[in-house]
Write a structure and sequence with these properties.
Blueprint (H helix, E strand, L loop, with lengths): L4 H7 L19 H7 L4 H6 L1 H14 L5 E2 L6 H6 L4 E3 L3 E3 L7 H4 L7 H4 L1 H14 L5 E6 L1 H10 L7 H9 L1 H25 L3 E6 L7 H19 L5 E5 L6 H5 L5 E3 L6 H8 L4 E6 L8 H15 L4 E5 L9 H13 L2 H4 L1
Parallel strand pairs: 1-4, 4-5, 5-6, 6-7, 7-8, 8-9
Antiparallel strand pairs: 2-3
Helix pairs in contact: 4-8, 8-11, 9-10, 9-11, 10-11, 11-12, 15-16
Bound molecules: coproporphyrinogen III.
The site of coproporphyrinogen III (CP3) has 22 residues, from β3.
């Protein structure tokens, strides 16, 4: 591997500089992505290894990030479990027949991932070949709680109240679904690693909708199983947006990395997580809409506050579609050019 900064940061090994990548970096702010989007459907892009490979490499070639992240989506897992998933332009994901009762559970299974998700592993093998050791490849999956949100609500939501009502009124069913997602995800991530993913990330985008006790029952106990099953095969990063209260408990899972959103101060995150975990984050994605000098100033402050060791620079959530490409590049370049010896 020519540039293994990300993998060294996840091990806690010394680095010459902080590695940087951006969540959702393969996506709609890039004109090269839009060109492909106009020609192929969303799941067609996910299921065609040559397209997934091309999109995965775009931010490496165009922006110069220190890691590639597989182009796919967290919703390919509910799809493989038996649910129909549509991606509707300007509306987001729609699952027309969501899970609401015990009868609906008969429509989902823990699938053979080799059979149902082989296109992901084919894409990973192709991407590894094309990357040719330039930067590591990150695989990923949605956390069980976040996937349940979509599988029950049937669409995006600010509150995911239907999903929560399902868990609060039919807890036994909810836990059965969560365990099925967990078992599928363990097999899925292990196969991603076997196909060549150098690290994996678990996205719990809606973890912050749960209070601390519910987060433990409905999210963390399942993520703990996934981390335990995967962490000795490849480093794993857990990103639970809004669940800063559980940073200590998430560090205790043994995950090599913890993703942070922009609402938690670096010093507080480090205090809660302890010194054995790498922190990743946490620039406000909307701040990339600021003038470039403001981006440069605030990124330097972020780097100063996190420090060089056990740290990966990233956004606090996915990049927004309306971010100008040169602003994304300014974010990445500022991290790459920052000299800790000069600024500390
Ligand atoms: O990070 C990357 O660049 C890799 C690709 C990736 C996508 N989705 C591609 C995508 C990753 C890692 C995801 C994860 C994902 N998908 C999450 C977790 C991360 C987060 O942002 O919270 C979630 C919640 C989803 C579900 C999902 N997929 C939503 C809500 C949407 C629509 C809204 C949106 O953000 O675009 C998608 C569609 C989607 N997934 C797009 C892309 C590039 C845009 C659709 C398109 O280009 O046609």
């Amino acid at each position: 591997m020519m540039n293994d900064l990300l993998l060294r940061a996840l091990k806690g090994a010394p680095v010459e500089r902080v590695p940087v990548w951006m969540m959702r970096q393969a996506g709609r702010y890039l004109p090269e992505y839009i060109a492909l989007r106009n020609r192929y459907g969303f799941f067609e892009r996910c299921q065609t290894p040559a397209l997934a490979c091309e999109i995965t490499l775009q931010p490496v070639d165009i922006i110069g990030v220190d890691a590639a992240i597989l182009f796919s989506d967290i919703l390919v897992v509910p799809q493989a479990m038996g649910l129909e998933v549509q991606l509707i332009e300007n509306k987001g994901p729609v699952l027309p027949d969501p899970i609401r009762n015990d009868k609906d559970l008969q429509r989902i299974t823990v699938p053979d991932v080799q059979d149902r998700l082989h296109y992901v592993f084919d894409a990973i093998r192709l991407i590894k070949q094309e990357l040719n050791g330039r930067v590591p490849l990150i695989g990923f999956a949605g956390a069980p709680w976040t996937l349940l949100c979509y599988m029950v609500q049937g669409k995006g939501s600010k509150t995911f109240d239907e999903a929560k009502a399902f868990c609060y009124t039919q807890p036994e069913l909810a836990h059965r679904v969560l365990q099925m997602i967990t078992d599928t995800t363990i097999g899925y991530l292990k196969e991603q690693i076997r196909a060549g993913a150098d690290a994996v990330q678990l996205f719990d985008s809606w973890g912050g909708l749960l209070g601390p006790a519910d987060f433990e029952h409905l999210s963390l106990q399942y993520m703990r199983q996934i981390v335990a099953a995967v962490k000795d095969e490849a480093p794993i990063v857990v990103f639970a947006k809004g669940a800063w209260h559980a940073l200590g408990a998430m560090a205790a899972t043994g995950a090599q990395g913890l993703g942070l959103d922009w609402c938690v101060p670096p010093e507080m995150a480090r205090q809660l997580a302890g010194n054995k975990t790498t922190l990743q984050g946490n620039f406000d994605p909307a701040k990339l809409l600021s003038p470039i000098p403001v981006i440069q100033k605030e990124v330097k402050q972020m780097l100063h506050d996190f420090g060089r060791e056990r740290y990966i620079a990233n956004l606090g959530h996915g990049i927004l579609p309306n971010v100008p490409v040169d602003h994304a590049r300014a974010f990445v370049d500022t991290v790459k050019n920052y000299d800790f010896n000069k600024h500390d």
